[in-house]
Amino acid sequence: MPMTHRHLIGTAFAIILAAGAALPAQAQATGAIPVATAPADASGDARAPYAWSDLCRRSPAECRVDLREADRVEMTPKLWKMILSVNSRVNREIEAVTDEEHWGVVDRWDLPEDGKGDCEDFALLKRKRLAEAGVPRRAMPMTVVIDEDNAGHAVLMIRTDRGDFILDNKRNAVLPWSQTGYVYVKRESQLRTGWTSLGGAQTSTVASVR
Questions:
Q1: Of 3, 20, 28, 84, which is the most exposed, with the fewest CB atoms less than 10 Å away?
Q2: Higher pLDDT, residue 39 or 3
Q3: What is the superkingdom listed in this entry's lineage (predicted)?
């Protein structure tokens, strides 16, 4: 039976996910640092996720942009190993639950201090730990994508001199942004408190992330 265009897309996405799953952090750490072919460039202002705005009211430091910090970091072997370690460790430590299960609301962004959270909570904790280790927060914008289920999903982007990389609670492998299979919608601005479009979808279509 011939495959439809939709089936082909789904199959391609499954192959991408399988490739990421086959590259655990330990295996990645032994190889050369990958290079993203091009940066994930911004294309104008975007509306912030409403739950992010609520986070900013409760925890302003999570949203503040310090223009004195670098907007990209030098990717060294030491930093690469740290990124892989933080990504896989947080993925192991935090129990994945939806915001409705956790808080009784559709979408809430917060640090998973009770050991439970969904995608954006994983990403916030990864950013916190990397910032505590000296990585400039400005180089780590929270990012919203459309995932394989055509749903909003949040990841952490790290912008480096070797390209932009994605820390994701769906896999321990840290991939160049262009190899995740996601559609990139928007990310935090590196110039001010707010968000910028990545041009991959109409930003109004992503009301919440999970």
A1: 3
A2: 39
A3: Bacteria
